[in-house]
Design brief:
- The protein is 33% helix and 15% strand.
- The protein is of the alpha+beta class.
- The chain has a two-stranded parallel sheet with strand order 1-4. It has a two-stranded antiparallel ribbon with strand order 2-3.
- It is globular and about 35 Å long.
């Protein structure tokens, strides 16, 4: 079981898949091709945050907010989507 859960909210004009590497150790993350950009950017600061959290035993969750490409979080609709996603992951893990 994980030591805890870290939810990471991306910045405006980005998406949750920016947190993750598209390919790591020969394994391709399928969520990358399902993202709005159809790829993961694996931004350096975000990758470091994910790596440090995982080294400490945390499960890292990212959910894409907003309504499409280059958008920001929708504070009316996105909180419910985030809660549903986190609840789903916790039930599965």
């Amino acid at each position: 079981a994980p030591n805890g859960v870290l939810f990471v909210a991306h910045g405006c004009n980005h998406q949750a898949s920016d947190l993750f590497a598209q390919v790591k150790d020969g394994w391709e993350f399928p969520g990358c091709k399902e993202s709005r950009l159809k790829r993961c950017l694996g931004l350096p600061e975000e990758r470091r945050l994910v790596r440090m959290a995982r080294q400490r035993g945390f499960l890292v969750i990212g959910v894409s907010g907003g309504s499409g490409l280059k958008s920001c979080w929708d504070m009316e609709g996105d909180p419910r989507r985030v809660k549903d996603a986190v609840d789903y992951v916790l039930a599965e893990e």
